[in-house]
Write a structure and sequence with these properties.
This protein has one helix at residues 11-29, and strands at 32-34, 40-45, 49-52, 56-62, 68-75, 81-87, 95-101, 106-115, 124-126, 132-136, 141-145, 151-155, 163-168, 174-178, 183-187, 193-197, 205-210, 216-220, 225-229, 235-239, 247-252, 258-262, 267-271, 277-281, 289-294, 300-304, 309-313, 319-323, 331-336, 342-346, 350-356. It is mostly beta strands. It has one domain: Methylamine Dehydrogenase, Chain H (7 Propeller), CATH 2.130.10.10. The strands form 7 sheets. A 5-stranded antiparallel β-sheet has the order 1-12-11-10-9, with no helix packed on it. Strands 2-8-7-6-5 form a 5-stranded antiparallel β-sheet, with no helix packed on it. A 5-stranded antiparallel β-sheet has the order 3-4-31-30-29, with no helix packed on it. It is globular and about 50 Å long.
């Protein structure tokens, strides 16, 4: 989950977003609204750039959109990778996009109806209806795009809600966090909303995932806490004891626990379903761990946005870090494919995957 501006000023959140924007600038210069079929920027086959390092094979694809910042990503039932593209500062008047990259490297971008929205769209997930669902924080909107590019948008009931993390729930609905209103939201595949206020204020909910217990687990960035909410709406908050714990992204681990990134503490955290929290410091100072996911190999994988690394952590806390070929690429979100590749977005305008060498 990338760093996005909040309607409430917060120094570290703002710093993370500025760093993402600076990485782009450095690399460049150093009720539902049916949007029909969705405007497409056309299809193009992306030539891959393969790099062999001492630890891994890294393959990257430069996106053709000069105005695009690849942000989050998810695989669809068509085996294509779907990516949210935010706008870079130089092109703030343009339109944001949802992009699709097929397994054979064919790239298509579908434009959203909102321009002047630099930090839209953000997170994306596969829904139970086989469509991809995404959040638009600046538009207070949940979006849906079908596999053939038809876009629908649903405005959240609460103004200035700023929806961010989104996930498919065990009940067939989509669940998301509202960072601007301290609520957890639910939307059915046909667009009906339910919102659940949290008993906290200015907590900046940021990311959400399904836990092994069938509940939804989420991060409270400014609240320095991890939250849990049942599909019936009963919420529990677990404070992080470390000062400035600042949990960012969260995922269900292979060991029956939940794992989350802590960009300020430079650590990966683990919380059991009973609420017991353990933190694991990273190898490099100032890595700024951002996205996190569970890999097919039974490990946790995360991005080091500032250290320019993809990290692997075993459920017992052993860490291996893989440096990316391009300096200042600023990896953000991360997701595995069914073949074991670890896919990630890069702030400078690319999508890539990593495959560790045998024995590493």
């Amino acid at each position: 989950m990338p760093a996005i501006l909040s309607p409430r000023p917060h120094v570290h959140t703002l710093t993370l977003r500025i760093l993402s924007v600076l990485l782009v600038i450095i690399a460049a210069g150093l009720a539902a609204c049916d949007q029909g079929g969705g405007q497409t920027t056309g299809t193009i086959r992306l030539p891959p750039k393969k790099t062999l390092t001492s630890q891994a094979t890294v393959q990257e694809f430069d996106i053709p959109s000069k105005d695009g910042l690849p942000t989050c990503l998810a695989f669809g039932k068509d085996d294509a990778l779907w990516i949210t593209e935010q706008l870079t500062p130089q092109y703030a008047d343009n339109y944001s996009k949802i992009a699709r990259l097929t397994p054979d490297g064919v790239y298509t971008a579908f434009t959203l109806p909102h321009n002047r929205s630099m930090f839209n769209p953000e997170d994306i997930t596969l829904g139970s209806d086989s469509a991809l669902w995404f959040t638009e924080p600046q538009a207070d909107t949940i979006g849906r795009i079908s596999l053939d590019g038809v876009i629908k948008e649903f405005k959240t009931p609460t103004p200035l809600s700023q929806p961010r993390g989104i996930t498919a729930g065990p009940d067939g609905n989509l669940w998301f966090v509202e960072s601007g209103s301290d609520k957890i939201g639910r939307i059915t595949p046909d667009g009906a909303f339910q919102e659940y206020p949290l008993q906290v204020s200015a907590s900046l909910p940021n990311d959400i995932t399904v836990g092994p217990d069938g509940a939804l687990w989420f991060t409270l960035y400014s609240g320095d806490a991890i939250g849990r909410i049942t599909t019936a709406g009963a919420a529990t908050i677990y404070p992080i004891s470390s000062p400035d714990g600042k949990p960012w992204a969260i995922t269900a681990g292979p060991d029956g626990n939940l794992w989350f990134t802590q960009s300020t503490l430079n650590a990966i955290g683990r919380i059991t379903p009973a609420g017991e929290i353990t933190e694991f410091p990273l190898l490099r100072a100032g890595s700024s761990p951002t996205g996190i996911t569970k890999g097919a190999d039974g490990n946790l994988w995360y991005t080091g946005q500032i250290s320019n690394t993809i990290g692997r952590m075993t459920p017992t806390g052993q860490i291996t870090e893989f440096s990316l070929p391009l300096p200042r690429s600023g990896p953000l979100c991360v997701t595995p494919d069914k073949d074991g590749k670890i896919w990630f977005t890069e702030s400078y305008g690319a999508i890539g995957y990593l495959v560790p060498k045998a024995g590493v």
